[in-house]
Design goal:
Blueprint (H helix, E strand, L loop, with lengths): L3 E13 L7 E13 L3 E5 L6 H9 L6 E6 L2 E2 L6 H7 E4 L12 H11 L4 H14 L15 H13 L5 E5 L7 H16 L4 E5 L3 H4 L4 E6 L2 E6 L1 H5 L2 H6 L6 H11 L11 H9 L3
Parallel strand pairs: 3-8, 3-9, 6-7, 7-8
Antiparallel strand pairs: 1-2, 1-4, 4-5, 9-10
Helix pairs in contact: 3-4, 3-5, 4-5, 5-6
Length: 282
């Protein structure tokens, strides 16, 4: 049994940047990345760092110019596997409106399973389960355009869940949401990982979201420049900032206190950890 959900080996992808077909730019350059089944990994990077391109390569929406991308052992370059890959690794995009296609929530969630050619009874079962998992049961008869941004994104996630993927790739799913919508979606993501055992690949520019992952990859100029647990990644405050990124606010505040002579841990990520460290100061 294959234990890797995603296995990328020496992968590169290029965009044409001018009228001359030889005028190209590497969006992803010689990236190797292994993501075990059941892991929650966050991928960070400033705009143009290659993180969204990487996500599309994992789902087969883009094909590598060099190297190989295997999803549960299936090569994304193989036409015979592409639909299996996309049902195995579902993708949620930044703007939920781009994924909502029906006039009623439950019909929208049913769109994917219907296209898989499933029996009516199985579709009904999957739709009800998916809507329940994302906490939208009371809205299943509601028109999507009447929902808030966070609710729309949860419906988009339900639509992916109804196709029964083992892995969910989320490309900046909270970028267009207000704080309430962000919280709703983040709670859903954590529940999918912890309770449903889904492999989660979260592309984000919010440091607090990345800090909740089990592993963080940081991209810069198409390459992975950091790959470690959140505490080790965010403890490199100066390096992270040199890439045009931020760190969680409590991590930066902890660094300033350390520089002023206070003795507290260097790897603080959460408010609770920060409060505990401050209370322990003498």
């Amino acid at each position: 049994m294959n234990k890797l959900m995603v296995d990328m080996k020496d992968v590169s992808f290029y965009y044409q940047i001018g009228e001359d077909e030889n005028e190209i730019k590497a969006a992803v350059s010689d990236v190797s990345l292994q993501i075990p089944k059941g892991e929650f990994i966050a991928i960070l990077g400033h705009n143009g760092s290659g993180k969204s391109t990487l996500a599309k390569l994992m789902n087969g929406l883009l094909q590598p110019a060099k190297g190989t991308v295997l999803v549960d052992g299936m090569d994304t370059k193989s036409g015979e596997y592409i639909w299996k890959i996309r049902s195995k690794a579902g993708m949620v995009f930044q703007n939920p409106d781009n994924q909502l296609v029906a006039t009623v929530v439950e019909e929208d969630v049913a769109f994917g399973p219907e296209n898989l050619g499933l029996e009516r009874q199985e579709i009904r079962k999957r739709v009800d389960q998916a809507i329940d998992i994302v906490g939208m049961t009371e809205y299943k008869k509601t028109a999507p355009h009447l929902l808030s941004g966070g609710q729309k994104q949860r419906v988009a996630i339900a639509g992916i869940l109804a196709m029964s993927p083992d892995c969910i790739i989320l490309d900046e799913p909270t970028a267009m949401l207000d704080p309430t919508g962000r919280r709703e979606v983040n709670e859903t993501i954590m529940r999918l990982h912890k309770e449903e055992g889904k492999t989660i690949i979260l592309i984000t520019h919010f440091m607090d979201e990345a800090a909740k992952a089990e592993r963080v990859c940081v991209m810069n100029k198409g390459k992975i420049v950091l790959d470690d647990v959140p505490k080790n990644v965010f403890s490199k405050v100066d390096f992270i900032k040199s890439l045009g990124l931020d760190v969680p606010q409590v991590t930066e505040l902890s660094k300033r206190l350390i520089e002023s002579g206070k003795t507290i841990p260097e790897d603080i990520l959460t408010v609770d950890e920060f409060v505990e460290a401050i209370c322990s100061l003498k």
